[in-house]
Write a structure and sequence with these properties.
single chain; alpha/beta; Rossmann fold; seven-stranded mixed sheet; 13 helices; about 15% strand
């Protein structure tokens, strides 16, 4: 049992066959000269690149802020724990962050299966002590709908919006026989439903589908999934998965001669996926990067004309912040720039804006009203951030990218060059 500093009541949260005893405490808000925000993410395992890059991007901005006096003289600290992209550790980490670390808010959680399983716990904490989850790296619907939406503030567009963008793009290219490859859990199912709904609006449905289990590595064979999808004679595929498994699926699809467009949503971590495919291409002499499309919820990190992107590129190289080695446990080669670290950077910029608007009194009871008052905030990416009492998602923009000369570039730019 994990106990808090000030016990009010004990609540038993059942998650499958696991019960966590949660002590609901009153909490404090600051610790000396620090403001603590709590993060649970994958820092180990097949999807560790997501947690590491998101952390790097956020800390690049927060380090800059801290070195320049912090917010009202207080430093901002991310207290981070590894969950390996598994729900039960996420629940335990959340309890630890709230009860032991007494964080002001939760921040930068990674993944739909992890976030959705901690939402009932968040609702308890939210009602008891005004605790909110800010900017999870997930576009799923559960945290955007009742009864949990009031305790979560999303910055990114939803998976429904990303997939609608991908479907519209594929249909505009005359590709209507769309198959689905997805991770068989809450994340994959969320994307699967979005594909079905997007196609149904056009009187269509997926022509085929295949699944894989969460945690599948790049070394796994995807030949059965490729065979199942190929049997439906698709002209394009939408994947809802993590980078290792999606890269394996692309590799085996191309090796089988299936060279149709394969599209992925933002969670896939395009840079880590691309790194695996480029490495394999060097080994085999085959190009695995043709006909790839990715939806992103942030602009391209090549768009240096955007003030926030230029600032991101400067600060992430200047500080080169990495999570503690005790957290990531293995060597990891960070990307110089990536959509994931850029998203973490933008998350941190909005976080700091919220804290600045709160003034020197960082009491949790003030957070909700302050965030809901943010409208037309210029984040520096050409589209404003808007929150409100009935709007807990700040951005709606979706950006499509494709691979050119070994890197992801905006789809529109490549098509203009080809005209």
């Amino acid at each position: 049992m994990i106990t808090g500093r000030f016990l009010r009541r004990i609540f038993v949260v059942f998650m499958g066959t696991t019960a966590a005893l949660v002590a609901i405490g009153s909490g404090t808000v600051c610790h000396g000269k620090e403001i603590r925000v709590g993060m649970s993410a994958a820092f180990t395992g097949p999807t560790r690149g997501l947690g590491i890059e998101l952390y790097r991007g956020s800390m690049a901005y927060l380090t800059h802020v801290n070195e320049n006096g912090g917010v009202f003289g207080r430093r901002i600290e991310i207290v981070a724990y590894d969950d390996g992209y598994n729900p039960i550790p996420t629940i335990r980490n959340t309890i630890r962050l709230v009860e032991d670390d007494d964080v002001l808010m939760l921040f930068n959680y990674v993944g739909t299966p992890t976030v959705t399983r901690m939402l009932p716990l968040l609702k308890i904490y939210g009602a008891r002590r005004e605790l909110f989850l800010f900017f999870p790296f997930s576009g799923a619907q559960p945290q955007r709908e009742g009864p949990y939406a009031e305790y979560v503030f999303n910055l990114r567009a939803s998976y429904s919006q990303e997939i609608q963008g991908l479907v519209d793009y594929l249909l505009s290219k005359g590709r209507s026989r769309i198959a689905v490859f997805y991770q068989i859990d809450a994340y994959g199912r969320s994307g699967w439903e979005a594909v079905h709904k997007s196609l149904a609006r056009k009187g269509l449905r997926p022509v085929g589908e295949a699944t894989y289990y969460r945690g599948t590595t790049y070394g796994a064979s995807m030949e059965p999934q490729v065979k199942a999808i190929r049997a439906s004679s698709p002209d394009s595929i939408i994947s809802i998965g993590a980078y290792a498994a999606c890269a394996a699926f692309i590799r085996d699809s191309r090796d089988s001669g299936l060279n149709i467009p394969i599209a992925n949503v933002s969670f896939v971590d395009s840079e880590n996926m691309l790194k695996l495919l480029l490495r394999t291409g060097q080994e085999t002499g085959r190009d695995y990067t043709q006909n790839l499309i990715n939806s992103q919820v942030v602009p391209s990190h090549e768009h240096t004309d955007l003030p926030a992107v230029a600032e991101y590129r400067d600060l992430i190289v200047r500080y080169e912040v990495m999570p503690p080695k005790s957290l990531i446990k293995q060597d990891y080669e960070p990307h110089k720039y990536s959509p994931v670290s850029l998203e973490g950077f933008l998350n941190a910029k909005v976080l700091v804006e919220i804290l600045q608007r709160m003034g020197p009194d960082f009491h949790p009871k003030r957070i909700k009203a302050v965030v809901e008052s943010i409208g037309d905030y210029d984040l520096g990416i050409s589209v404003p951030v808007n929150f409100g009492p009935t709007r807990h998602q700040g951005l709606d923009e979706v950006f499509l990218t494709t691979v050119e000369e070994g890197k992801f570039v905006p789809v529109g730019e490549r098509e203009k060059r080809q005209e």
